[in-house]
Amino acid sequence: MYDNNVPNKNLDLEIEERKGNWIQTFSGQMFWPLDPKPEEIFTHDIAHALSLICRYAGHCREFYSVAQHCVIGTHLVPRHLALDFLFHDASEAYISDLPKPVKVHLADYKEIEATIETVIAERYGLQYPHPKEIKTMDWTLLATEARDLMEIPRMAWYIPEGIRALDYVIKPWKPSKAESLFHRHFEVLTSKAYAEGKVSLDIFHDQVFI
Predict the structure, then answer these.
(1) 3-state secondary structure string, 183-197?
(2) SS3 content of the chain, % helix, strand, coil (to 5)
(3) DSSP reduced 3-state for 32
(4) Most exposed of 5, 67, 97, 190 (fewest Cβ within 10 Å)?
(5) CA–CA dist 63, 193 (Å, integer)
(6) Cis peptide, bond prior to residue 129, ω within 30 of zero
(7) Which of the four pLDDT bands, split at 50, 70 and 90, describes residue 1?
(8) pLDDT value of position 7
(9) Domain limits of the chain?
(10) Is-contact 76 202, C-beta < 8 A?
């Protein structure tokens, strides 16, 4: 279920007819964004891609990856939802992301995104649609990221009532660190020791909250 290995690269495979065309992932896997399958989702691909995708369409003062955003949030949601937060933006590994003012007007994109998110949830045993706690923490991190990583806006961002930025100040990581910590968090969150309460994400605290 939690296979993190790089998929075999077999260029001689006979490919069944699929909807749409395919993209090549980091590990060489063929992935059909319009026809995703759980067995074609690999953590190796997601961690690498998200570590190289910048939040806010690249308009941060420094490069700040989606992977770092996902890793930080795992420490801030209820324990049983940490894996859900780690993967809540995983669809962006396959279709990137669009600024919200654009995305809300693209029904086809939203449908494709939802389909991929559903398949990712099936792959890793996550809840979908995302639980309220995931959405609340996403907004909390957005408020924090806006304060720490963006220039002062001419108009205040929309932030839902009751959402407050964290006391913690976000410092961007290099992509290699974000990718490594994504993998290591995944390994702990899917371990028997974590399920039994014998280990927690606190082992990463000093690396995450620098």
Answers:
(1) HHHHHHHCCHHHHCC
(2) 50, 5, 50
(3) coil
(4) 5
(5) 34
(6) yes
(7) very low
(8) 56
(9) 23-208
(10) no
| DSSP H helices in the chain | 43-51, 66-74, 82-86, 92-95, 100-103, 107-124, 132-149, 175-189, 192-195, 205-208
- Tell me how far apart the alpha carbons of residues 68 and 175 are, in angstroms, rounded to a whole number: 8
Token digits of residue 177? 């660190």
- Count the neighbouring beta carbons within 10 Å of the beta carbon of residue 139: 15
- For residue 23, give both structure tokens: 């993209």
Residue length of the chain: 210
Class at the top of the CATH hierarchy for domain 23-208: mainly alpha
Residue 44: which of 28, 32, 33 has the closest Cα?
28
- pLDDT tens per residue, range 12-28: 566 778 999 999 999 99
- How far CA 139 is from CA of 71, 142, 204, in Å, comes to 15, 5, 23
